[in-house]
């Protein structure tokens, strides 16, 4: 005999909970009655174990609460929280049943006083500055002689057209190589980094221009990614950063060897002016003529002095003087001819450069892109057809499995039906037994349930008998 002591304390056994049942009830009550809410406070006890989840406490001057942010919810985060940071948290209240701890499951974290992207920008800027990536000692000087310029940008934007336009006017002698890549969106930072690596390893470019048009902080975010900043720093080729407008500042600007306010300004910064070179050449030519004439005059004067001081050598000096005049004329003639030849060669090279316009290369790249697009489309069509065949085969296998499972279930149902039939009280009636019920179809289990004169129903295997009670005997 089991003795129930619960009644000794004034409550029944049904009111007693196990610890796990009580915690489950508490968790359900919290989650169903406290909605998702925003909280503000200071982060403390922040930890990031190998699982990638974040665990920390959110506190103010009067209390604190444990919080957790799972790795799946961190995908939209651009910064990592730190101890002492004031934040806003969107969280779901819940109970961790294994320890019985009340906690908040964070779904979104925003820094107080700054946006998510701005906080990530400042955080990465401080980190890279501490590592020395912004130090002036790491800046590479721009080369004085430019033969090839690598432009890392999109072929669809106005940036490359502006750069080519400036170079055609200012310095048409340099070869322009476009490393086409996306400059915005998911994965663009990695693609820009790959383009920098390819341009640097080609050893064909004297200088690189990393360029993009203006936009919002979100549009320019690829140039604030750590992977791109480290690619810029690792490049052996000098890089000019020309991102957005003059007021826009990115992490790449701090790491690059030089920053230009616009892509057009980067093209001017990377090359000398053709007119300035020609003016310098004219100046050097004039200076050379003056120096040559001065030397000739000095020699002539010196010869004249020798002629005055030397007796008997007058005729020989006159011959030397005449020879010197002839050499002077030949030198001037040779210099003019050389200058004219070089000027002609320069004009010829200028015309040839115009023929080798980057537009031909761009047109060729577009044709290659169209071919690659067609090949990709054909590959996709083949993959879709193959997947459709796979789906058809799997559908047939599923149908066969379902038919087999239905047959098994029918067999099991038949077995259970036979078992239930053996246990049915109606089966017992076939052996001579009967069931008695009152007039309102209630099963009669005792003589106390009927009175003399009541009508009772007797259920037999092949029908029912309706009788009236004349006498009642009790055992």
From TrEMBL:
It is an enzyme of class 3 (hydrolase). One of its GO terms (molecular function) is exodeoxyribonuclease VII activity. One of its GO terms (cellular component) is cytoplasm. It catalyses: Exonucleolytic cleavage in either 5'- to 3'- or 3'- to 5'-direction to yield nucleoside 5'-phosphates. Pfam families: Exonuc_VII_L (PF02601), tRNA_anti_2 (PF13742). Residues 362-397 form a coiled coil. The keyword Transmembrane does not apply. Keywords: Coiled coil, Cytoplasm, Exonuclease, Hydrolase, Nuclease. Its EC number is 3.1.11.6. GO terms for biological process: DNA catabolic process. The keyword Ion transport does not apply. Residues 17-110 form the OB-fold nucleic acid binding domain. Residues 133-466 form the Exonuclease VII large subunit C-terminal domain. PANTHER family: EXODEOXYRIBONUCLEASE 7 LARGE SUBUNIT (PTHR30008). Heterooligomer composed of large and small subunits. Bidirectionally degrades single-stranded DNA into large acid-insoluble oligonucleotides, which are then degraded further into small acid-soluble oligonucleotides. Belongs to the XseA family. HAMAP family: Exonuc_7_L. This is Exodeoxyribonuclease 7 large subunit.
